[in-house]
Amino acid sequence: PATAASLVAVDDAGDTVRLAAPATRIVSLIPATTELLFALGLGGQVVGRTTWCDYPAAASQVPSLGDGLQPNLEAIVAARPDLVVLYNSLQNVAAAARLRAQQIPTVLVNTDRLADVPRLARLLAPLGGRAEAGDSLARQFELELDGAAAPGTELPRRVLVLAWDQPPIVIGAGSFLSELVSRAGARNAFDDLPAASAPVSLETIASRAIDVVLVLGDSVPAFARRAEWQSVEAVRAHRFVYVPAALFSRPSPRSPAAVQALAAALRAGPRP
After folding, report:
1. Is the previous residue joined to 56 through a cis bond, with omega within 30 degrees of 0?
2. Quick one: DSSP state of residue 64?
3. How far apart are CA 111 and CA 203, in angstroms?
4. 123: helix, coil or strand?
5. Which helix (H) or strand (E) holds 84?
6. β-strands 106-109, 159-160 pairing
7. Which of 32, 80, 114, 160 could serve as a FRET partner for 191 with CA atoms 20 to 30 Å apart?
8. Using one digit for the tens of pLDDT, what is the confidence trace for 88-140?
9. Is it true that the peptide bond before 199 is cis, omega within 30 degrees of 0?
10. Residue 84 burial (CB < 10 Å; 0-12/13-18/19+)?
11. What does the buried/exposed string (b/e) look like for 129-149 if buried means 16 or more CB atoms within 10 Å of the residue's CB?
């Protein structure tokens, strides 16, 4: 059973949030936390989501309240939530303050790293009255993630992961995608960049001696047909590794499966 202590949480913005009772009407405006709430058995208490909350399938039955950044406050209030979960960003700080001013408990959380999955399970589950489920999911996730790790001795050393191609924006060490690459036994070609993503020049990409390009999906990326990208030898040679996009869209309880899928794709080698 929930206790008074378990219904107090400090969010990732450093604010203390208190609930008088376990939340029964939760608005989750982050795809990662929506998926996590369903995994915790709290899906029936989710009454609002973003347009991008697409997993599990049951989430599509929850009313969409629009975007998760600079959210529609009128739509949130109309859902009569007793807990709102927002991404911890400058765009959402003011929204959180306005919701709290209307006595609506609101947490701002980060969902950028694999470690955020068990951490947020332990943070959010008690607020929904399922503290034990949070501990259980966190322990299982950590075990599965450790078990999914692959040795990298025979795998390509450098993997290019793009967030965007025009202009080129690469994934850096601050992203969970870089963690997935590392755990799959390879190396992110831009793991020297501390940020989650950063713009770089094509000349810089070409200089990195990239072995393979990671493609989230099953078709040749459009940029591979553009003349300027032929300066990148891995692109010119169509050394692509394809993985299911759905597994790689966010840190989630499915991330151990993402590590396994990427490791298998790397072992199979690039294909056109």
Report:
1. yes
2. B
3. 31
4. helix
5. strand 83-87
6. unpaired
7. 32
8. 999 899 999 999 999 999 999 999 999 999 999 999 999 999 999 999 999 99
9. no
10. buried
11. bbbebbeebbeebeebbeebe
